[in-house]
Design a protein that fits this description.
Layout (H helix, E strand, L loop, with lengths): L1 E3 L4 E3 L13 H16 L4 E3 L6 H9 L15
């Protein structure tokens, strides 16, 4: 699931079935999200990954994403 807040793009969910991981599907999905966001006028794409999810962090690094120095603050309602 990808969205645009008027300035940045966000990827909220991306999942590939285990049987299809490492086949290029995730890269293709991210490429499609990036293309859509460019058409929407977004200049940056952001997403959140839990710090302990090393395999997903490795995936994003392989396709050119880098860690940003930001903190996420939240509150349970």
């Amino acid at each position: 699931m990808v969205g645009h807040d008027g300035h940045r793009g966000w990827v909220y969910y991306l999942a590939v079935a285990k049987a299809h991981q490492r086949s290029g599907v995730g890269s293709e999905l991210m490429g499609a999200a990036e293309d859509w966001l460019r058409r929407m006028g977004a200049v940056k794409l952001q997403l959140m990954v839990r710090s302990e999810n090393e395999s997903v962090l490795d995936f994003y690094e392989r396709i050119g994403y880098e860690t940003s120095d930001v903190r996420v603050v939240s509150r349970w309602l």
